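Box 3.1 A note on notation
Throughout this textbook, protein chains are presented in two layers. The first layer is the amino acid sequence; the second is a token string describing backbone geometry. Keep the layers aligned when reading.
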Amino acid sequence: MENSRAAYVCLIGADAVEQLLAGSTVTGQTIRIDNQEFTVLGAFERIGSVLGQNQDNFVIVPIGTYLRMRGTRSSVTIQVKAGKGTQFDNAVDEARLALRAKRHVRPGVDDDFFIGTKDSFMALWQSISSAFFAVFIMVSSISAVVGGIVIMNVMLVSVTERTKEIGVRRAVGASQNDILRQFLAESIVQCLVGGAVGIAGGFLCALGLRTFTSFPASVQTWVALLGVLLSSIIGLFFGIYPAFRASKLDPVVALRSE
């Protein structure tokens, strides 16, 4: 009845209730929408947020009222809830048939409208998330390679500056394997410290997003452990050459260096 006579009535979300009608009875109150007064017939229970987007700040009016205010040529999105199984498929087919007839779409011509179901939206989300995942993997790989090269250069400089130390250790009985293990351990420790700092930063960023925004950010434990493992592998791989170079230094030549 409200739709047929384009009545100025509405239903409002939980956030709209708190912002406009806090502390008062919702039903029967009057609010102003687009310079037009509407009578509130009721309010929805709190929905929450989806992917950080607030779902409770809305007002629902009859479609006839909306078309009177905005014109019949405005774009409209219709949300429909149907049953499961064949009942849902039949509802989609009936909606497509009604829209094609209403919009005078000839047989054999593609639809000039879009019907989105949960499957289509899930497919869209999976394609978007897959693209983001691929980009994150690429950026992480580049960062890992750059970080490994930096670690290798730092270790090479360390070998050059500690040549005399290496000579003294070799002179008092340290073997090549001892020198190799020492510099490999130092390289791995550097990467582990850097990885731990990065993981801690990730946890803090997720905590900040979860605390100060409605985005459900979190860091899973297995991801943090994987980061520690990858840091160790990077430190081991890029530390092999500096450690091998340090272990092959001639003790006599090393002792003569300043």
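The chain has a mean pLDDT of 84. The helical segments are 14-20, 63-70, 86-102, 118-161, 163-171, 176-212, 221-247, 251-256.
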